[in-house]
Amino acid sequence: MTPPSRLTRVLAGVGAASLVLTALAYALGPPDRWHRAVIADVSWTWSALYALLCCGLALRRSRAEERRAWTWISAGCAAYLFGQLAWNWDELWRRVQPPYPSLADVGYLAMYPCLGMAVRDLVQLQPQRRLEPQVAIDAGLVTFTAVALTYVFLVSPILQTGGAPLAVATTVGWAIASVAVPWAILRQMVRRQGFPLAPAGVVTLGLVVLSVTNIVYAPRALSGAYASGGLLDLGWDAGLLLIGGAAAFAPQYGTTAPDGTTRGLSSERARTIALLIAVAGIAALAVAGALRPGASATTAPWVVAGIAIIGARFVYALRADRRYATLLEGEVAAQTRSLMDSLAATAGAERNLRLVMEAVPDAIVVLDRDGRAVDMNANARAMLALPSNAAPDRSIFEFLDADAGPTARQHLDAAFQGEVRRFEVSFRRPDGGRGMSAVLYAPVREGWRVSKVLALVRDVTDQRRTESQLQQAEKLAAMGQLVSGVAHEINNPAAIISGFAQTLLLDELKAEHREMAQMIYDEATRIGRITQNLLAFARAGGRERTLVDLNDILRRTFALRSYHLSTLNIAVALELDPTDPKIWANASEVQQMLLNLVINAEQALMTVETSRTITIRSTSTEAEVCFEVADNGPGIAPEIRGRVFDPFFTTKPEDVGTGLGLSICYGIVREHGGRITVESELGHGATFLVALPRDPRAEVRAAEPKAAAADPSGHLSVLVLDDEVGLRNALLRFLTRRGIDAVGVGDGAEALSQLQQRDFDVIVSDVRMPGMSGRDFIAHLRRERPQLVARLIFSTGDSFAADTAALLQDAGVPTVAKPFDFASLEQLIRDVAARTRAA
Q: What is the DSSP letter of 791?
């Protein structure tokens, strides 16, 4: 409801002040008749004008459905003001007592039909009661009482007084009109389902005050006993001022509220008040007849008729009560049956709801504002490790980590404001570990407020771990491609440095110079080993595999490090699968992977002073074979756990490791189609788990026997094909120093031109070259000169790339990896030459 406006407050204050000043003027005014008449006339005129002004404003500002009532009230106030102006003309201007009746009485009496219509319109927004016999009897009782009182106390005495017929008729009109307005009010109280009080109640009070004043005025005016300026005049002023004050408040306080409900008396209370007034009127008739013996003959019939109506209503009420009791019993029985059906339906619905909650695979928890569980399903109890018969009255924050509690509380408060919230928090799992849960808060509304919150919780620990592994795999795959390209580019300059160092070592050098050349060769070889490790991390196939015994590899690897581990006071426990599982793999790569994991655990244990233990365990299923390497070292911090397989990432001191060990392990496992994961908790060691798939294939065919070594004293001619000028020149110089006739070319087209001019015992060709690649070169030889394919040796800086590995496997020719040892290459050249000559 809006507060009263400033205009409303001003008008109400003017009305209240006017009433107080009028009462004081009547009480303290001069005693002479003329001045008191002036006070009365001014007061009446101002009161009528004030009421008309306020009603006009109410007519403009009130709701549309109430404007008809204010229109009739305004018309009534205007009629009264007209009558008052006519009265003032006689009494103030002409200074004569107005005749009775006069033109003023016409205006005054014209007011009552307007007020009667206003009473009807004021209450018409309230629905009428159904016209039942009891309502009809009550309405008849009110009407009978009004007629009886009007006749006995007003009309009959007026007719007996005598006087001019027009004056008598006017007085009778005053009496009937004055009673008609209260009768209309009482009748509406009986017929309506509620009776308004504000502002209609104030208007009703003003109408009643006017009616009572006019009832008193009518016989006095007929007898000539009325004179202006008496206390009776205050009744007209008060009635008009009350009507004006109610009109001032009408825009803010209508007859009905915006939702259509009644502002005022309830139906039964209004009806009871009307009946009590009617009964009091019958009682007043009876008392008047007893006190005035001469009037008993007139009042007796009215009293008897009224008592008869009251008796009829009492009898009907008894019968209605009995019928109502019977109907009530039937209604109670029907309601009882309906209640039982509703309870059964509610129980069924609750049972179905419980079945649905238990069928949902996620945890469902109903929370109150304090975060306490009101209800939960079996999955929620299992997630929180609660017994099935335990009461769910536990705070959900007890099961969260300390840093997760405020987050969950913040989201819960937002959910009770009506928001749907989704978030993730960590929690303690039943096994004591930490887990990650995805939570959905959904508010449960009861009307306009949120009474509870439904929490759907899903354990996403494994899902997040899988996503993390997938991200790690994608990251390492991209990094592997980068590493492969970098390693390939490094191999060529490393091979050049190594080649020139080996060539220098063939000469007679000073001891200092030989030492320097040997150091250059050793460091170039070290670069080669690093690039080979990088390529092993980024491998894409091409290594031979066979059916190997995993337990045998584990034992042999342990034997390699057993003595060294014992000197470091590290105990190793072997827990091997008794079924001796076998896998299709490259045995050296698996051994390298296991050795890296053992060395990684060994280095981690060197930072602790307590007992040091490494556990190597193997298990198997029908689908895969697993082994794990666990230590009781310091563990891995959560913030770096996702980076342990990154190349060159290490937490070890400088010169202790290169950071490639675990990344190489990752590359080997990925190449074998398996997976490698790490589980660790800071301060409780780390466990690396490797799972490799089983493969039912048989043993690979035996390798071809190596050809016999060639005689180093024989004359050989070699064609060297490589786009790297430095590497080509270094190899030519070395071979020349070793007594081999070597010719170098930079691309495949030039090599084909040399082969047309002369014959070569051996051809050494690079795989990756601009223009004609190694694949194109061997394809041309197979088409044009297939006999030369047996003399071909491939050299490559990346034998692990998928296309290179496929070419080397399809070609079936010997291969050397850059940076290669020139002495080994020389021996391979002589072996190939000896084999082709023998053929």
A: G
Please check the confidence at residue 818 and state whether its pLDDT lies above 50.
Answer: yes
pLDDT of residue 552: 86
In single-letter form, the type of residue at position 271 comes to R
Cβ-count burial 679-701 (b if 16+ within 10 Å, e if not): bbeeeebbbbbbbbeeeeeeeee
Provide the angle, in degrees to the nearest 10, between the axes of the packed helices 267-291 and 133-149.
40
Q: How many CB atoms lie within 10 A of CB 779?
A: 13
- Over residues 715-730, mean pLDDT: 87
pLDDT category, 696, cuts 50, 70, 90? low
Please identify which residue in the block is written with the tokens 């060197």. Answer: 606
pLDDT in tens, 603-661: 888 888 778 889 999 998 888 899 999 998 888 888 777 777 777 677 665 445 556 77
Residue 739 CA: distances (Å) to CA of 407, 730, 733, 736: 79, 15, 10, 5
C-alpha span between 148 and 119 (Å, rounded): 22
What's the residue count for the chain? 839
DSSP secondary structure letters along 735-784: HHHTT-EEEEESSHHHHHHHHHH---SEEEEESS-SSS-HHHHHHHHHHH
d(Cα 548, Cα 380) in Å, to the nearest integer? 46
Tokens of 698: 């048989």
What are the residues whose beta carbons fall under 8 Å from the beta carbon of 133, sequence distance 6 or more? 316
188 phi, psi to nearest 5 deg: -65, -30
Q: How far apart are CA 735 and CA 729, in angstroms?
A: 10
Average pLDDT, integer, range 268-287: 78
Nearest by Cα to 797 from 588, 494, 545: 494
**Local structure of 361: helix, strand or coil:** coil
Q: How far apart are CA 202 and CA 216, in angstroms?
A: 21
Q: What is the reported pLDDT for 264?
A: 65
Q: How far apart are CA 557 and CA 690, in angstroms?
A: 16
Rounded-to-integer distance, Cα 77 and Cα 258, Å: 28
3-state secondary structure of 713: coil
For residue 248, which of 57, 2, 43 has the smallest C-alpha distance?
57
pTM over 0.90? The answer is: no
Of 235, 172, 168, nearest in space to 207 by CA: 235
304-310, long-range: CB < 8 A, 24+ apart: 305/144, 305/148, 306/141, 306/144, 306/145, 306/148, 306/281, 306/282, 307/282, 309/137, 309/140, 309/141, 309/144, 310/141, 310/279, 310/282
pLDDT of residue 718: 93
pLDDT for residue 5 is more than 50: yes
